[in-house]
Amino acid sequence: MPLTGGEKESLQASLDRHREVVLWKLDDLNDEQLRRPMTPSGTNLLGLTKHLAAVEYAWFCQTFGRKTEPLPFDENDENADLRVIPEETTADIVAFYGRARAAADR
Questions:
Q1: First-to-last CA distance in the chain?
Q2: How far is CA 98 from CA 3, 40, 42, 77, in A?
Q3: Is residue 58 part of a domain?
Q4: Of 6, 49, 56, 65, which sits most exposed with the smallest number of CB within 10 A?
Q5: 2 is a domain residue
Q6: For residues 92 and 57, what is the distance between their CA atoms, to the nearest angstrom?
Q7: What pLDDT, in 10s, does the model give residues 90-105?
């Protein structure tokens, strides 16, 4: 965390640090490990990453009326952003998260 600078810079640095931790947690895991349910609800690391991407778009883009890409799931299904369908690859979800981060930063 920066010890100098304004509140916005400190918040951005903190957010970026946490974003990088999410990606670090995915490193060196195979597809089975990334998709393995880790909670009784069935949440897995890829689903959590997909959810975080949707949250970045919602909080930082939609809240301020900025355009976003079409979300790759049914927004009427309240848990769709946590589910990873078999056709979605790790690369797809990490790229979606990267685009959401970039859009949020703009």
A1: 20
A2: 27, 28, 24, 23
A3: yes
A4: 65
A5: no
A6: 16
A7: 999 999 999 999 999 9
